[in-house]
Task: structure prediction
Amino acid sequence: MIRIENLHKSYPIGKDSLHVLKGLDLHIKEGEFVSIMGSSGSGKSTLLNIVGLLDSHDEGKYYLNGELIENLNEKKAALLRNKFLGFVFQSFNLISYKTALENVALPLTYKGVARKERLKIAQEYLEKVELGPWANHLPNELSGGQKQRVAIARALVTNPKVVLADEPTGALDSTTTDNVMDLLRDINNEGMTVFVITHEEEVAEQTKRVVRLKDGVIISDELTNTTKAI
Amino acid sequence: MKFLLDSDTWQEIYGSIRKNKTRTIITIIGVLWGVFLLVVLLGAARGMENGFNKLFGDFATNSVFVWTQRTSKPFKGYQKGRRIVLNTNDIKVLKSTYKNEIKLLAPRNQISNLVTHNFKSGTFNVSGDYPVLDQIQKKKLIYGRFLNKNDITTFAKVAVISEDMYKQLFDKNVNPLGAYIKINAINYKVIGVYEPPTTVDFDNDTAYIPFSTFKKVYNTANRIDWMMITANKGVDIELMETNILQTLKSLHDVHPEDKRAFGKANLGKHIGKVTGFLIGMQFLTWFVGVATLIAGVFAIGNILIITVKERTKEIGIRRALGATPKSIRQQIILESVFLTTVAGMLGVIFGAIALFLIDYFFGQGQDAALTNPTVSIPIISIAFILLVVLGTLIGLIPAHMATLIKPIEALREE
Ligand SMILES: Nc1ncnc2c1ncn2[C@@H]1O[C@H](COP(=O)(O)OP(=O)(O)OP(=O)(O)O)[C@@H](O)[C@H]1O
Ligand SMILES: [Mg+2]
Result:
């Protein structure tokens, strides 16, 4: 599903450049539940942004769903994101003046789904994250955990191939964290590929595979106990 | 253009407008004020124009009146103080010399005479005229008709009298048509009664009789007291007046610089001044209105730019969710056009209300300052097209800025 070979990424800083990713190799197969760990500044978000087609890489190869990603223009990137990827962010990134239902329905707009159909599908996904009754609430009327569940429903609504989550539990307390992780695990159990960045060992433990980054290289890549136990 | 019919597009616009109420109101007020000014000023200018037209309305506006006085300079052996007499030959010469400029030329002879009917009488002007006078100064007839060609050729003893003369000479409720009045011991049949013009009037109470009859009765031979001349469209009336006077001076051996020998009144000159003033006002109105409008549209553009900056994050989110640069651009341009046109419509509506009130308070009655202050549909359409075009153009800038926003930069956590 995601194949990365010898991936490099640098950011220009003034005249110098900051080499953030220094030759990563990573292969994530369909249906995997992978977490990335690493200290702050180790390049986790950079990696996720490249995988999410929000940023471009300098060197190496990136295959998404078997397709080599190169020379993407903004329009093509937008289409691929809409088709293959779902995003969950640490700060939820819901649109504040839209209701939970409209937020969830938004990616379908860009897919060209008619409004009525869209709202119907969005409602189904809201039910799935157990927020059916909250459909017509604005984001500021929801708790952090609820917001993140809305965001997850939004990531899922286009039925993507991969869900990318950058510290989805970073702004949540431990109970809601468990809630959100349970939800992600359920999704994964239904066959969805899930790719999570996290700081927390407890969160990483709930995934099936942990990749550790340090200074732009992968220092370890192993299956978790959860997986071994099965 | 399909996206214009898409309810989603409008849903989005509604959402973003509802979210940014203050800036929406501010932007709308900017453009609204521009359109409002344009409508009200143009309407008022039109009202003034209508007012002037009403004032001069019954007169052919490009006309010259010429009559004779005494010379003030000796010339070719003649003493000064000589009385000039116009004659029918002058008319022939003028008509052929200025056949391209002159539209109508009406000679007239005039005298003041006692007019009687039964036992009532009064002294009035009696004027020998051609039917064409009716085209130079429209006569509003209460009864009957004005002089016609037949009256001239048959030397008919007929008269058209003013309403006041009718009231003075006839008993109440007597039909004047067909009745006879006596002027200088000769009976004339009354064929028409006219209402004196409420506006500009040279004649006061005059009994109009056929020019030919006048000539015969008063034995004027070739003498002519007055000439009324109207010019064709596009002719410089002042130039024509000067030329005609020069011709007349040379025909009558009058010193070319003698300013007293002929009397003249040029209505066109005054009207020209007024028209010039009105055109100036319309121009100023357009200038002020359009400038205000452009300022308003710029304000919209400016605020949209600010909004785009404010909405960087939202745009980033949309981009991450699959919005293409094109869809973002469309959204913002449409928002700009929508705001400008809504503001424009409100401006037109308020402007129309204002014009209605202006008409109500200042536009009623005979000598109102304004008559029918209105703005025509084509002008409104032009203003609207201007608005849509400007709205689109000004929307392009923020729209372009929005497409430059990289989702990753917009989404970066603080
Ligand atoms: N657009 C950018 N321009 C310059 N430097 C950048 C840019 N984005 C990230 N960096 C730098 O690249 C490095 C990696 O950043 P990244 O956001 O990937 O770290 P991270 O592992 O996600 O850290 P955290 O856990 O704090 O989120 C950091 O040193 C950061 O300052
Ligand atoms: Mg990060």
Remarks:
- The interface with chain B takes residues 49, 52, 54-55, 74-75, 78-79, 81-83, 87, 89-91, 93, 95-98, 102, 106-107, 109-111, 115, 154, 158 of chain A (CB under 8 Å).
- Residues A 11, 13, 18, 20, 38, 40-46 surround adenosine-5'-triphosphate (ligand 1) (CB under 6 Å).
- The longest strand of chain A covers residues 16-28.
